[in-house]
Amino acid sequence: MASSGTVMERGRTVGGRGRGALPPTSPRRAASRALRRSARWSVRILGLLIALLLVIGVGLGIRTPDAGTPVYTNSQQTQLDAEDRYRSLADAARSAATADAGLAAALTGIATDLEAQADAVALPGRSATTTEPGDASGPARTGDGRSGTGPVTSGAPPGPSAAADPAAPAVPTQVLADLRTSALGSLRAALAADPGPARVLAAAGANQWRHALVLAAALGTDPGLPPADAVPVADLRDGRGIFAGIPLTSDQPGAAPPAPAGRPTAPSGRGQTLGTGDPTPQECEGVPIGPAADRQALLDAKGAEDGARYGYEVAAALLPDRTGVLARAAAHEAAAEAAAEQLDDLCAPAPPARPGFALDPGFRADPGAALRDLEEAHAGLYGGLVPMISPDLRAWAVAAYNAAVQRSVDAGTPLSAFPALPDVPVHDPAPASSGNTSDASEIAPTDGPDD
């Protein structure tokens, strides 16, 4: 019996170990478990290190601007680019003047106007003096006179500098090429700049346009500029023709600046000269579109152009150059039609021209002087419209202003740095200007002719 009990007790012990007791752990199995646990922690630590390295790498790749580095808007960058371009070109013109006595007066006049324009577009608080090479206190300039403070986004496209070799005098022909490019770039930049700078840029472009014509005539070469009256607004607006390759300052280079939010976008005009070139008329439903100020500006411009046409037609019977005077009358008639087409596109048809206009009492005594005053007043009219009109019509206003300035100078008005804009503020004393912006025209509309 004792033997049998012993066997049964041993059986329970063996059975119990098989069913309820944990088997003993071998040294090999314990080592394997420790190794796996260590491997899992190693993978976790490695993953954390990789994530940390990625975060550090991204942080190094995205650097925030230094606290002292200014950030400019597109319009401010346009001003910076224009200022540096004008100063570089002024230096080149003065350099060329020292090497060519025959052109010294013309080149010096160009430089003086460019310096005044550079002062006018300079940002407040920025030095109006040109930074010399090697001077680290101011922004670096590229070869074509642009500022190195930010991306080049406006004005003329990069090209050879008129003063690429500082040891040699500039060449007048290169000054002419850069002056022409700067004129076109200034007019185009005026489309995307803020209203105040746009007015100054348009004036600088018109002034440089005229200087290019005069310098080209002195050099006996083609300026590469058509008559200002014949420049299609679409070319200026879209960067075509003589404006090809000259971008606007905007998020989309070469694209027109967007209209402010909530403002109806006016469709394109239809005129080929001082018009936009779209042959498709706007379908209207009897409700004008666009800002009322735009429609009033166009009505004022059309009335002034109709009055100027009438004045030139009367002057044709009083002046010896009948053919030339009638050609000017035709130019004003085309400008009136362009304004009427813009009104049609705003679904606001223009009234027909009056049959006659009252002339200033001194018109018959000195028709030449009266026409000169008329053209100067027209330049002032369009110069005032450039900052006031909506972005949709800015190209029309800039093109009309440039054409009016060229007609005004042709009529005998002295060329100033800011044609017909006598109140442009500059850092240095303002240059002399003979503009008159008080009246749109010295010819007032009446119900019938008074000649």
| Rg over C-alpha atoms, rounded to the nearest angstrom | 37 Å
Q: Main β-sheet, in a few words?
A: 2 strands, antiparallel
* Overall body shape: elongated
Summed up, the domain count is: 2
CATH architectural name of the largest domain? Up-down Bundle
Report the top-level CATH class of the largest domain: Mainly Alpha
Report the β-strand fraction as a percent range.
under 5%
Secondary structure: number of strands: 2
Class per helix and strand makeup: mainly alpha
Number of helices: 11
CATH fold-level topology of the largest domain: Ferritin
Q: Which consecutive residue ranges, at least 5 long each, have pLDDT under 50?
A: 128-164, 250-280, 427-442, 444-451
Q: Strands of the biggest beta sheet: in what spatial order?
A: 1-2
Which percent bin holds the helix content?
40-55%
Mean pLDDT: 77
